[in-house]
Amino acid sequence: MPVNTQNVSLRISAGLPHQFPTDKMAQVALSGRSNVGKSSLINTLLGRKSLARVSSAPGKTITVNFYDVDKKLFLVDLPGYGFAKRSNDNQKQWSSLTDGYFTKNPNIDLLKLVVQLVDSRIGPTKDDEMMLEFMNQSEIPYIIVATKSDKLNATERKKSMELISSNGFILPDTPIIYFSSLKNEGKGELWKEIYRYTGL
Asked: What is the band of 92 on the pLDDT scale with cuts at 50, 70, 90?
């Protein structure tokens, strides 16, 4: 049964694992490096303009944001990684909080899918590959969303597809969705995968 995206709220921006909600709802987590377009994707996916704040300073906010979608699903925005200007203390806080989501989340069994975002113009970075390796080893289901696809012409898009699909850290047959917040591309495909993995 499709969710009502008009009934959405930010439940909590959790800075510590003990703040994670305990509701028995399916969770879909969004992972990716800072400035890859997670906030724009959330706003597009939920049909909002500013539910998720698009930061002018990438990597500044270090929280796990739980978006309650129609009391049926949590969209979980994990902190962006790989931001070079972040201090060592902030790096440790990011690592601890993100690790805490996977190791201290009371409802980790309800994590149905990780949406791994990569920049379609760059492909998976070393940080992305570390995340992919972790999910592979932990047997966490994931799909790839290639963001900012509107910035590619036809030739660049073909090269991007070849680059991403041939990456050795991405498991064979992993869905790869090209997404553009500007043009709404990929929104329907992404919802289809979310419904498929969550059973909603």
From this structure: low
In a domain, 2, yes or no: no
Please state the pTM of the whole predicted model: 0.90
Total domains in the fold of the chain:
1
Q: Which two tokens stand for residue 121?
A: 């113009």
pLDDT tens sequence across 67-89: 999 999 999 999 887 654 445 55
Kindly report the CATH number assigned to the domain that includes residue 104. 3.40.50.300
The answer to the question of residue 153 being in a domain is yes
Are 34 and 80 a contacting pair, CB within 8 Å? Answer: yes
Asked whether residue 46 is assigned to any structural domain, the reply reads yes
Tell me, yes or no, whether 1 lies in a domain. Answer: no
For the segment 100-152, what is each residue's pLDDT rounded down to a tens digit? 899 888 899 999 999 999 999 999 999 899 999 999 999 999 999 999 999 99
* Residue 39 domain boundaries: 8-198
